[in-house]
Amino acid sequence: MARAHFDVKKQTGFTTIALFCFVMLYAPILTLVVYSFNAGTSIAIWEGFSWRWYESAFANEQVQDAAIRSVIIASFAAFVSTIVATMAALATTRTRPFTGITFIFASINQPLMVPEIVTGVALLIFFAIIKIETGYTGLAYLLIAHTAFCIPFAYLPIRARLENMDLSLERAAADLYATPWRTFRYVTLPLLWPGILAGGMLAFVISLDDVVITELVKSAGQDTLPTYMLGQMRRIMTPEMNAISTVFLAISILMVTVFFLLNRKKS
Amino acid sequence: MAANATVKSAPPATSAAEAAAAFERRDTRNRWLLSAPALAILFFASIGPLGIVVVYSFLTKGGYGGVEWKFSTDAWASVFFTRDIFDDTLGFADAHLSIFWRSLRLSFLTTLLALVVGFPTAYFIATRPEKTRALWLFLITIPFWTNLLIRTFAIMEVIRNEGIVNSILIGLGIIDQPLQIMFTDTAVMLGLLYVYLPLMVLPLYASMERIDFRLVEAGYDLYANRLQVLRRVILPLVKPGVIAGSILVFIPSLGAYVTPRVLGGGRNMMLGNLIELQFGQGRNWPLGSALSITLMVVVMVALLFYVKNAGKSGVRHG
Amino acid sequence: MRPTRSAALPALREDRANRAWGLNIVSAAVAVEAKNVSKIFGAGVGEVRALDNVSVTIRQNEFFTLLGPSGCGKTTLLRLIAGFEMPTEGSILLDGEEVAHLPPFKRHVNTVFQNYALFPHMTVAQNVAFGLEMLGKGKAEVQQTVAAMLKLVRMEELKDRRTSQISGGQQQRVALARALAPRPKVLLLDEPLSALDLKLRKEMQIELKRMQLETGITFIFVTHDQEEALTMSDRIAVMSKGNILQVGSPTEIYEHPADRFVADFIGETNFIEAEVTERIGDDGRIKLPSGIQVPHKVTTSAGVGSRVTLAIRPERIDLVKADADAHFTGKVSNIVYFGTDTTFHIDLESGQGVTVRMQNRLGHRDVLQVGDVVGLRVEPEAMQVLRD
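^ inputs. structure came back:
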């Protein structure tokens, strides 16, 4: 077939590889979702459609327990980390370089730079000391650990939003007799809101997904959904795992979609 | 706000510089106060404990996990060396070194494969029309934000002996015994590639999106063929993206824990699993601490390399 | 500090008849005074002196323009008056009161920002109401004032639109209404017309002048556009490198530029080196490069024998026959037709190039050709002796 014009953007084979890549990314996930509806007990042999694994997953008390714990931890971590991250973002953006700004910036981003396993081990040691000293073995360890590693994830979209925000809007407010607090309340906050929401959701998803740090920090009987699943993977698996995963995926995808829409609105 | 006080005590012109300096000091203090809660949490539950790890790596291991508060360099020695139980001579800790080697090798191969697959994919997205580009990008982002464990689980179902790949191959009569992929280095590498591929595509895309295709046109105008344009024009333009993507894949691969645990089984450990082992069955917390620091140092070196190179080209990523 | 609107508006109307004729009544009272103001950004090697010991007095009801190229410090001076920056040294008086260290929300001045800085999450009317609400005005008064302001800028119909849904020119009007609504003592305008296209800019120049006349508020206008400055201002301060070089009416600035920078920045100018040969008081004689001596007023410190630079506007030069009456003679090197006028480039005997502009109705264009030898005559008052 004769080409109508010379396509400068074309590179031989790239489209094929790209499409292969998309197939490779989605095929396993789709397989996983499909087999969650398998009527049989195998996760490889299709035996017809059924909701039975969803029913059994929802009826499974361990799953219920872990899911509730996951949501509690993620909600707490997202809420607290978003508030402190918002404050930190306000402090570290749109400013002359002040004493210690690099230090603050590096500290906030630190969880992104250290492998999770190292942070997990560090927390394991530190919390072991506290456990011995105080005897407390409750959920607080997981709550604070999750809050800490969620901070940079909450911080980044808020900071990005702030940096794109026109400083002259706040100047205009001050020029029009708004005190710093009122400027924040009536101008900065409404404009920053999508960023805060995005940061909060990101933090929530990150906390919900965490395996490594939770696995190392948790006390006995404090499984979250991911650590419960990790434990189950050592056994013979039934499509119940697929069902749990599918629900989990659905929640994540929903949140990512909302996150995307929030971020797109600004541009 | 002490508005009146400010007016009354407003210093005359001579101390304008002092007033400006005072304002700056106040501003700096306020910014520190605003950052304080975040810093407090991070120091309590992330940065501080890392310091403790350093301390622990120089202590003596306790009998049932934990440590004895006695200075020792045994942990650091046993990262690389092992003492023969019979003649007490020092030899290289082959078990550790092979795990180091596997971690580096698998991470490197994963990065290379991710680049080979990710580069055309990012290019493909970047050259889509404006309208559909966001959708393609979204398709790459979704796996990125979905649970790593679930994605590992998904790839496991594909490559298991009773999984889709083997079922299809046997069904087609190509093989009659299932291919043993699970619990091999290949499985770990495939898993790492699968879970970290989006980390390669996203920064690559970010730098490709900015390509001015008039430069590509200029390349063709000056008699370059497609391959030459790719090598001499496009590749140099997106070099920062290549470096960023490679680092973003290499670092988490090196510290991977979940993927090798699920897909590699007990024998095909990586550094992350070796570390975890010291705090579990190994009961050697100082060694675990020393290994953690080793891993952290390698990661920091990689990051510094990235910062240095990305800084040179003047393009920021992340 | 806060003026009562009801008292201020009727008083305005009285002046309106006069103002409608373009007779701006500038009172002698001082609105803003900057005394020995310096502003330094950064420190050490990166130190930038944006303002260097600047003093200026701006009168009430005046349309005052800060004119200069980018980086001359004009915007910094404006921001110091607004309160977005603090002076490194010196003081700023608003109505005789020191305000240099008051935050912007405690100064009764308002700003029209270069990019308008309209709140994107509010409607047009909400934007205009913002300042009044922050001042704690009653609901009825806010509504009334907002309506009056929207009327002033002719934006009543779009009051419920989001600011992202209106055009650039309309945003400009809203920004004006918002800044005028609290009836500031001084309105600061930071290159507000630079984002508009040429036609809209011309319209807004007239509009701005009208609003200034109608409201009687002191306007301090920052621009790098000399034409904008000349057409709108009561007085202009020409700035360069953190200094004010000259303050004066548009005519003064154009006809009698104080130094080379001002002469060069505003309009086109020919610079001609000359020598002072006689001087008694301000009266003296100047020797032109052609050797001809002309009587001239010398207001600078230049003594007998010293070299001076003359600034001569291209339209103030007459082309004549190359005879004894001519101050210079030269050869036409290029003729450029501009529609309303024609520009002649002439190489003088001394080798220097001079530009002469003539209106086309005079018909020189048809008579002269490239290569012709011509004489140039300049009235002595059109030769401005520049400060060194």
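Chain B touches chain C through twelve residues (CB under 8 Å). Chain B has two domains: 2-56, 93-317.
thumbs up if we can close this ticket
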